User: Fold this.
Amino acid sequence: MRDIQNQPDFRKINIKKVGVKNISYPITVLDKANATQKTIATVNMYVNLPHQFKGTHMSRFVEILNRFHGEINLKNFHNILGEMKSRLQAQAAHMEIEFPYFLKKSDTAAGAAAVEYRCRMHGSLQDEDDLVMEIMVPIRPPSSAPASGVMPRSLGNWGIAKVALRFLRFIWIEDLIIMIESVASHNLSWSSPNPPGSHDELTLENMTRSLARKLRDNKDICWFNVNIKNFSQSGDTFAALEWQKA
Assistant:
């Protein structure tokens, strides 16, 4: 049988991305308290297609996933991307993994319970690695929060914090969650507005700056993007900023 994908193509047109999307795949992620945690990820994998090739072997993407079964994590991202480049004869490889991460909390309304956080890792390998970790943390008001005034009504959540970062050394997902929630819970703990100009006055801007300061002070982080959204019946509001280590 002829290998159609490896036949030459004479149109001299590169394709930037070709691959597979929305693959449901079991993965194991590192868990600070329990060593590892099993979860189900949605995986996208793609490479560039040089102009001289007619097509890409789509089945090889899943073969590569299977080869790293049980070891798909931050530490192996480079190896997986390298395997994609090599086996698919590509100049650049990309992978995106989105998954729910569960953290047991004892301060929920129902007592001890596992809270779900959405996480995403996306990496590229061309001449060098680029790996970004994203996490979405719900911001919930305390049970004593007023029904009106500083905090608008919402469907259970005040809003959500989305943080994307690049790091110099490994960072636990739990530590990121705790860092984000410590800023959010501090800012939402006020039951009435503080005097104008107070650094603890509840605003999206103050919460965004407070979180950015914590992330900036962490020596393991070299770049981050913070986006905090507040849910409201009349339309969502948000604040966002980006920082990179000089």
Summary: The domain at 1-99 is CATH 3.10.270.10 (Urate Oxidase).
